[in-house]
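Task card 7
Instruction: Convert sequence to structure tokens.
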Amino acid sequence: MKTTSEGERLRRLISEREFPNSPLSAELRAQATAYAQRRVAEGLRQTDVARELGVALASVGRWLMPRDGESAARAALIPVHVVSEPKASTAGFEVITPRGLRVVGLDMDALCTLLARHG
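Output:
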């Protein structure tokens, strides 16, 4: 099935709920989650996926978060974009995570520990 037609089908099914804020059925949520995962893997932003499906950005974000029971390895893997090579400094590293967390001044070991615990 083509992505656009699948997205349109899911959008229609999501919009046909009796109440706009009622939860999706487990089956529809699973389909929407798989669609969102695939589209994000193709390079689309979560905001674009939300627009395609006619849902809130927060919904797409929840769908893409690891669920209980998923492997810790999958939960720990996040895309990283190196903007520039780190400069040697006594101040430590500066990192901004995809969720907007900004960390300044930690050494490599402390930074790795923080990101491993909090993603």
